[in-house]
Design a protein that fits this description.
Radius of gyration of chain B: 20 Å
Shape of chain B: globular
Mean pLDDT of chain A: 94
Oligomer: heterodimer
Helix content of chain A: 40-55%
Distance between the termini of chain B: 17 Å
Distance between the termini of chain A: 13 Å
Low-confidence stretches of chain B: none
Bound molecules: flavin-adenine dinucleotide
Strand order of the largest sheet of chain A: 1-4-5-8
Largest sheet of chain B: 4 strands, mixed
Order of helices and strands of chain A: HHHHHEEEEEEEEHHHHHHH
Strand content of chain A: 15-25%
């Protein structure tokens, strides 16, 4: 068989525990000050610029990046702790999360030095927001069917076409996108895509909002019409973006954000059943906690692999598959268990409001960031089936 | 875990490969494989791995012992290795030396109780005791009026009714009626039946994880051999996705079990955090046995349902191991109660403490 899948029991080092205390204290202060509410995952105010700046000022953005770019040169495990504490508190991380997790590392790897020196410190200060432009109306799972064209012109490229489902494009300052620079070749249908840095809020780009079934507004259609991108905004190899895209997946797929999106309903269920649950509630909670604990141990283990410089693509896909299926089922399990919660439970209203939102959120969880079916294809490849 | 440079595991794997090949065992209907396997394991000091030198054992670390159990699971080993290890470990808690030969522990269920009478004799009934019929001695956790004791009991003095679990291994009912133990000593402070059940549950979790790893391996191999509709079945996307899910269940079981083993190996006591790890491992591994085993059978089609095929050696044992030392339902209720008692705002700190 193939190499065994291993998830060594990595433990977070002591510096993480100190950091966790600091993050919790900070979040408690912000909650007390009314910046956000931990009981309102469905906050309307998804865009909280001052919160991003405060997180940046704490040194919690670009934590693992070189100091010369404004980073802290801390470990992935430390970043992990910050991410999970923010998620569990329902903190408004949308404005900085993509840049911190994905866009910054792409720039560090592929951008020219002057662009790094310009943009990375601003990400670290929590001043700018990034979007990811991969999907198109006819290419979601099948990334290589992307058609939006980048045509060579004097000093740069002209972009024409449409990106879709682009989260945060309406508030983003930049987008990292893939565009077609050449047609695919017979031998390699993945050939011909190039990664670009796009400055948003310019003529030639139109962002059209798309509503979501949760009632929120989060993703968009982005239309490019003869939009000019200068030469030095090409990221990495022309026509070779597919190689770049795949190695980033482990970071995107295994973090705590991949199983904690609906976590809040579990806390509220525990609150509602009180200290002496009946057997049915106790068993339900026990199982959910066991599953959560196991996924978190797997996720921390992958963070340890990343810290050690490995590329655990299959392991990360497994964490995302199990994690997103779990967070998708969680609201429904909690709803089952909440059926017999006392009418007098003090948080009953909060629980019901949260369940309502989590149930509406659930359908997207196994779609965003790569569908379950696509992930299982990657795992199957890792098992030697393809 | 299971570092390939782990000498205990390496020794065990070599013995398993030579003397516990699942196909050969499956073909041998008379059970003549058992004695040589047990002899080799004993000569290598593996059944008493967790017993310190001065108490008659080989003094391996807890971590090495757990890795050994994981390897045993990968071969679906069906001799009382885990049971003798647990018995030796239990006796060592009270500084009781381990005798030679097969042992097992009782009780094996959180609900059963063995009590100490005024005259120091032991009474009580323990159901589902693995390999009791094969054991020469029992390591027993017994409750006196106010104290918990650990005792070594001569198996011949007990009444043992044979039973089989779903994996066709002995799972017997042992009745003690005013039996005088060979030795009895107080358990260390804080050590109780729950501690013993958690330890047994983690041992079973590692075995289940090992069995799932083996099931994944043979299922992938089979899918690459079996041809249907003029293709290897591994080329069908539905089959690939089933195997990807099996890989996920196998990985989850291994992660949960090795994390719990690591927690126990490094813990000073069985506190709430270790409780979470051990209970969660048993719950998650049992769930994985059900889901993962189901997929392994699905991929194998009818051939995997035959007694000639080795798949059942893994799948049925993994299912049977769910029942020992507290089922997943038992631990889920207990873990749920613990979480509820600590309160909603303490749930995340508990999870994040690991
Ligand atoms: C909330 C949200 C936010 C998002 N944010 C962004 C973003 O910021 N930037 C961005 O670029 N994209 C974003 N996406 C898009 C997301 O990445 C795509 O939706 C996803 O890749 C699936 O593509 P699709 O929607 O076109 O579905 P399709 O690719 O059409 O898939 C439809 C169904 O067919 C299945 N399918 C497709 N191909 C295969 C195959 N080969 N084998 C088996 N099954 C297959 C899929 O798994 C799925 O079940 C977001 C999506 C959501 C829901």
């Amino acid at each position: 068989m193939t190499a065994a899948l291993r998830f060594d029991p990595i433990r977070l080092p002591p510096e993480c525990e100190q950091l966790r205390k600091e993050v919790r204290a900070f979040l408690a202060e912000e909650i007390a000050a009314g910046t956000f509410s931990p009981f309102k995952p469905n906050r309307e105010d998804t865009d909280v610029p001052e919160f991003s700046r405060k997180v940046g000022a704490k040194g919690w953005l670009g934590m693992t990046w070189p100091k010369k770019y404004g980073g802290q040169e801390r470990s992935f495990l430390e970043r992990y702790v910050v991410t999970e504490e923010m998620r569990v508190a329902n903190a408004p991380t949308r404005r900085f999360f993509v840049a911190d997790r994905q866009s910054g590392p792409v720039l560090i790897k592929y951008a020219p030095e002057h662009i790094k020196m310009d943009i990375l410190p601003r990400i670290c200060r929590g001043e700018i927001c990034f979007a990811i432009g991969m999907s198109e109306p006819n290419s979601g799972s099948d990334l290589f069917a992307a058609k939006t064209r980048a045509t060579k012109t004097d000093g740069g490229y002209l972009i024409n076409g449409t990106k879709i489902w682009t989260s945060s494009a309406h508030i983003a300052d930049y987008m990292i996108a893939i565009f077609r620079t050449s047609p695919p070749t017979k031998e390699n249908r993945r050939h011909g895509l190039t990664q670009f840095l796009v400055k948003m809020k310019q003529p030639g780009i139109q962002v059209n909002p798309i509503g979501q079934i949760t009632g929120q507004y989060e993703f968009n259609e982005v239309v490019f019409t003869d939009f000019f991108v200068p030469e030095d905004h090409v990221l990495g190899e022309v026509d070779g973006a597919w190689k770049q895209a795949t190695s980033e997946l482990a970071y995107e797929r295994s973090g705590p954000e991949r199983f904690l999106e609906t976590y809040y309903v579990l806390t509220e269920l525990v609150r509602a059943v009180g200290p002496n649950p009946d057997t049915r509630s106790a068993e339900g909670i026990g199982r959910l906690v066991a599953q959560l604990h196991t996924m978190r141990r797997m996720s921390v283990s992958v963070a340890g692999m990343l810290q050690a410089g490995k590329e655990p693509v299959v392991e990360a896909s497994i964490v995302k598959d199990i994690g997103t299926v779990w967070e998708q089922q969680l609201p429904h399990r909690v709803r089952d268990l909440a059926a017999f919660v006392e009418e007098t439970a003090t948080n009953r209203e909060t629980l019901e409001r949260q369940l309502d939102f989590a149930i509406k959120t659930a359908p997207k969880l196994t779609i965003q960031g790569g569908t379950t079916e696509v992930l299982r294809g990657i795992i199957a490849r890792g098992l030697g089936l393809r | 875990m299971a570092e390939s440079d782990n000498i205990v595991v390496e020794t065990a794997e070599k013995i398993f490969a030579d003397l516990a090949d699942p196909q050969e065992i499956n073909n041998d209907k008379k059970g003549s494989w058992q004695a040589p396997l047990w002899r080799a394991l004993s000569e290598a000091g593996l059944p008493l791995a967790w017993v310190p030198d001065d108490l008659g054992g080989s003094g391996a670390s807890l971590a090495d012992g757990f890795a050994l159990l994981n390897a045993a699971g990968r071969f679906a080993v069906a001799v009382p290795l885990a049971e003798t290890m647990l018995a030796g470990w239990l006796l060592a808690q009270a500084k009781i030396a381990s005798p030679e030969g097969e042992m097992t522990v009782l009780p094996a269920s959180p609900k059963d109780r063995i009590t100490i009478d005024a005259d120091g004799s032991l009474s009580g009934r323990a159901r589902g005791v693995p390999f009791a019929k094969a054991a020469k001695h029992f390591a027993v956790l017994a409750h006196g009026k106010d104290e918990v004791s650990i005792a070594l009991v001569d198996a011949a003095k007990a009444r043992t009714e044979s039973g089989l679990n779903v994996g066709y291994d002995h799972s017997d009912t042992v009745t003690l009626e005013k039996i005088q133990p060979v030795t009895i000593k107080p358990a260390p402070k804080g050590f109780d039946q729950t501690t013993m059940m958690l330890m047994g549950g983690v041992a079973r979790s590692l075995q289940i994880a090992g069995a799932l790893e083996a099931m994944l391996g043979i299922s992938v191999r089979y899918s690459n051999e079996r041809v249907a509709f003029e293709k290897k079945i591994s080329k069908f996307q539905a089959v690939q996705h089933n195997l990807a899910r099996l890989a996920g269940e196998s990985a989850a079981a291994l992660a949960a079990a090795t994390s719990a083993a690591d927690a126990i190996s490094n813990a000073a006591s069985f506190d709430d955090a270790v409780y979470l790890e051990a209970a969660a491992a048993k719950i998650r591994c049992a769930e994985a046995a059900e889901k993962g085993g189901g997929i392994a059978h699905q991929v194998h089609g009818a051939i995997g349902f035959t007694i000639e095929h080795i798949l059942h050696r893994y799948s049925l044992r993994a299912l049977a191991w769910r029942d020992d030392f507290g089922s997943e339902s038992h631990w889920a209720v207990e873990l749920g109660k613990l979480v509820a008692k600590r309160g909603a705002d303490e749930l995340w700190p508990l999870v994040a403490s690991r």
